[in-house]
Specification:
The relative contact order is 0.07. This protein is α/β, with parallel strands linked by helices and 390 residues long. The chain is elongated. It folds into two domains: 222 residues, Rhopdopsin 7-helix transmembrane proteins, CATH 1.20.1070; 155 residues, Alpha-Beta Plaits, CATH 3.30.70. It has 14 helices and six strands. Strand 5, helix 13 and strand 6 form a beta-alpha-beta unit. The mean pLDDT is 91.
C-alpha cells in the first residue's frame, strides 16, 4: 500500500474504534479506561486526518504537521497506557501524562527537530518504545485465565511495535553515523505508517474484545453469584459439584459435602432487623471462605443455609474442617453488630462408590437435622447415623 492509502486506512480504524469507545464510555462513565482509550483513538484520528490532508497536497503549517501530528502519536501511546492502568485499577498521574505531551510538542520547535524528519523520529522513538515497555510490563503482571488469550494479543501488539521501532531507530542511527547499513530515511519514515496500522488493528481490536469479554464475565458472575454474599448460588451448584464428584470418582478420591445453617436465625431478624440478618449472613460467608482451600466450592443454598463441597476430602477430614468453621464463627462477631452471637449446625456426608449429588445432599441434610435435634452448634456426620446402634 502507498502512504496515502495507509493514512486513510488508519483514519477509518481510529474513527471506528473511537466512536465505539466513546459510546461505551457515555453508557457507563464509571469505566475510566474507556475514556482513555476513546481519547487514544481520537488522537490517532486527528493525526491521520492531518496526514491525509498533507498527502493530498494541502499546505499545512509546521505546528500542525509534523509537530501536532507527531505529538498526537505519542499521546496515542500514552493514553493507551493510561487506559490499561485504569483497567487494572491502578492510579494514573494525569499531570505527568499532560506534562510529557506538552514537552514533546515543544521539542518539535527546537532547531534539531526542525532540521529533518529523521531528527524528529530520534526524539519520538525512544519515548514511544519506553511507553510500550511499561504497557508490556503491566500485562505480564496480570493473571486472569479467562482473559489470557486477549492479554497475549495485547502483548504481541506491544512487542511488534517495540521491535519495529527499535529496528527503525537503529537504522536511523546507522545512517546518521554513516555506517552504510541503510541510507533511505524516507523509507524508514514511510514503513512507520504500516507499523502504526498493524499496531492500531491489534491494540484497538483486542481492547474492544477485552471490554466485550469482561462484560460477559461480569454477566456470568451475576448469574452464578448470590447478590448478597457473593458466593456461588444454588443455580450453578448441581453443575459444579457434579463435575467434582465425577473427577473424584475417576481418580478414586473421596469427596465430602457439608450443609450448615445459622442457629436461631429467625430470632436475629426479629430482634435486630433484616439488615442485621444480612450482615450475619455476609459475616458467616466471609469467615467460612477464609477457612477453605482455593479449590473448595462454597454455595449459598438458600436463606441461612450454606453448602460446602470438599474435593479429595474424606469424612474424618471434612468433620475437622466443619468444626474449624464452626469454632471460627462462634468466636467472632459481625463488625457492626457486636451483640450478635452466631453459631451454626452442620451435617456432612462423604462419597461411597458411585454416590451422586442428590444422595449426598439428602445424607448431609439428614445429618444436619440430627445436629439440630441434639442441641445445635455441633457437627453431625451421616456416617455416624448410618452406624448400627445410632
Amino acid at each position: 500500500m502507498d502512504i496515502l492509502t495507509l493514512t486513510i486506512v488508519n483514519l477509518f480504524i481510529a474513527g471506528g474504534a473511537g466512536a465505539l469507545f466513546w459510546l461505551l464510555y457515555l453508557a457507563d462513565k464509571s469505566q475510566q479506561h474507556l475514556l482513555y482509550w476513546a481519547i487514544a483513538a481520537s488522537c490517532m484520528l486527528v493525526s491521520s486526518t492531518l496526514s491525509t490532508l498533507f498527502h493530498f497536497g494541502l499546505s499545512l503549517p509546521y505546528w500542525l504537521t509534523p509537530a501536532l501530528g507527531n505529538t498526537l502519536i505519542v499521546s496515542l501511546h500514552l493514553t493507551l497506557l493510561a487506559g490499561l492502568y485504569q483497567y487494572f485499577r491502578l492510579s494514573v498521574k494525569l499531570r505527568w501524562f499532560v506534562s510529557v505531551i506538552i514537552i514533546v510538542f515543544a521539542m518539535h520547535f527546537s532547531d534539531f527537530a526542525q532540521q529533518a524528519t529523521a531528527n524528529r523520529l530520534f526524539l519520538n522513538f525512544p519515548l514511544i518504545i519506553i511507553i510500550n515497555f511499561f504497557g508490556l510490563h503491566l500485562l505480564f503482571r496480570q493473571r486472569h485465565t479467562a482473559l489470557n488469550g486477549i492479554y497475549l494479543v495485547l502483548k504481541l501488539a506491544f512487542v511488534l511495535n517495540i521491535t519495529q521501532m527499535s529496528l527503525r531507530f537503529l537504522l536511523l542511527l546507522s545512517d546518521k553515523w554513516q555506517l552504510g547499513l541503510f541510507s533511505n530515511p524516507d523509507f524508514i519514515h514511510n514503513i512507520g505508517f504500516f507499523g502504526l496500522t498493524s499496531f492500531a488493528l491489534l491494540i484497538f481490536g483486542s481492547s474492544i474484545l477485552l471490554v466485550y469479554r469482561q462484560q460477559q464475565l461480569t454477566l456470568q458472575q451475576y448469574s452464578e453469584r448470590d447478590a448478597l454474599t457473593g458466593l456461588l448460588n444454588r443455580r450453578v451448584m448441581e453443575q459444579k459439584i457434579s463435575a467434582e464428584l465425577d473427577r473424584c470418582h475417576r481418580q478414586a478420591r473421596p469427596c465430602s459435602l457439608v450443609i450448615f445453617d445459622l442457629d436461631h436465625f429467625k430470632q436475629v431478624n426479629d430482634a435486630h432487623g433484616h439488615l442485621a440478618g444480612d450482615a450475619a449472613l455476609c459475616h458467616v460467608a466471609a469467615i467460612t471462605s477464609a477457612q477453605l482451600r482455593s479449590y473448595d466450592l462454597f454455595f449459598r443454598y438458600g436463606g441461612e443455609e450454606f453448602v460446602v463441597c470438599l474435593p479429595d476430602t474424606d469424612a474424618t477430614a471434612a468433620k475437622h474442617v466443619a468444626n474449624r468453621i464452626r469454632r471460627a464463627i462462634e468466636s467472632s462477631v459481625p463488625v457492626h453488630y457486636p451483640e450478635l452471637k452466631l453459631t451454626i449446625s452442620a451435617g456432612l456426608a462423604s462419597t461411597r462408590h458411585n454416590t451422586n449429588l442428590q444422595e449426598l445432599l439428602l445424607q448431609a441434610d439428614q445429618a444436619l437435622y440430627q445436629a439440630k435435634n441434639t442441641g445445635r452448634n455441633q457437627i453431625c456426620s451421616f456416617a455416624t447415623l448410618a452406624t448400627p446402634g445410632h
